[in-house]
Specification:
Blueprint lengths: L39 H11 L4 H9 L6 H4 L7 E2 L5 E5 L4 H6 L6 H11 L9 E4 L13 H18 L3 E5 L1 H8 L5 H4 L3 E7 L5 E9 L2 H6 L4 H21 L2
Parallel strand pairs: 2-3, 2-4, 4-6
Antiparallel strand pairs: 1-3, 5-6
């Protein structure tokens, strides 16, 4: 996150080549409960998370939760930011150093780039809701362990249920693979629409369209890939337009 941000892309990106079109939706939907082996601690996490009836209760539950070792090494818990009634919910992997200091997601260099990406399609940081798969920073920004992810996952799933957005955006391979329960890398997952299912009080599942995108931190390191990010942003804008028309 400490890397210097490159110059922004041109205001009118060049049209994509025909062979670079966004792939069709995946025929295999995701589920609200990815197939991660649940330990007793993860099961306890799920029980605690499901008992939260609103975001304030979920935040309080996490603040009192001692089942994730990352809490002991982090400076702050990073819960979420933005409009809790937003149509778009963005989920990354984990807080970085700047996020850990400020207690908010995506506030470092990658967060600034994310804001510019949203602005390019008429959205603002204040108009979306942003969070991460992990609520505490892994020491030294190391990759989280499978146990850490499994412990936090029930809280993330409940987070999605409570916000209940119209569209989910998973930024980065770690977030996409975890929440879509897939093994492919982000280059294979990005640019496609999936169906993320959440349960309802009536016992039926509701599907939320979900899009995987490249992480802003990756784009800072590899600015040539901003063309792919632009295609994904256009897809997101089109999907939001479709959903808006469907309710008129």
């Amino acid at each position: 996150y400490a890397q210097e941000e490159p110059a922004p892309p041109e205001s009118s990106p060049k049209p994509a080549r025909a062979d670079a079109q966004i792939a069709p939706p995946s025929p295999s939907p995701s589920t609200a409960t990815p197939a991660v082996a649940e330990s007793p601690l993860a099961l306890d996490s799920r029980r605690i998370a499901q008992s939260a009836n609103n975001l304030e209760a979920l935040r309080a539950a996490l603040e009192n939760f001692d089942g994730c070792p990352l809490k002991k090494t982090a400076t702050n818990m990073v819960f979420g930011d933005g409009d809790p009634n937003a149509d778009v919910m963005i989920i990354g992997e984990a807080p970085g150093a700047e996020e850990d200091r400020k207690g908010a997601p995506f506030v470092g260099a990658s967060g600034h780039l994310l804001g510019r990406m949203l602005a390019a399609i008429g959205l603002t940081r204040e108009s979306v809701y942003i969070t991460n798969v992990l609520f505490w920073r892994p020491p030294g920004n190391r990759n989280p362990t499978s146990a850490e992810v499994a412990t936090c996952l029930p809280f993330v799933q409940r987070h999605i249920e409570l916000v209940s957005p119209k569209v989910l955006v998973f930024v980065g391979g770690a977030a996409a693979k975890t929440l879509l329960d897939r093994t492919e890398g982000i280059m294979r997952l990005r640019g496609k629409w999936y169906e993320y299912q959440i349960p309802t009080d009536a016992g039926e599942a509701v599907s939320i369209p979900a899009l995987a995108m490249l992480h802003p931190a990756y784009l800072l390191r590899t600015p040539a890939q901003k063309r792919l990010a632009w295609l994904d942003l256009l897809s997101l804008r089109a999907k939001l337009g479709e959903l808006t028309q469907s309710v008129l």
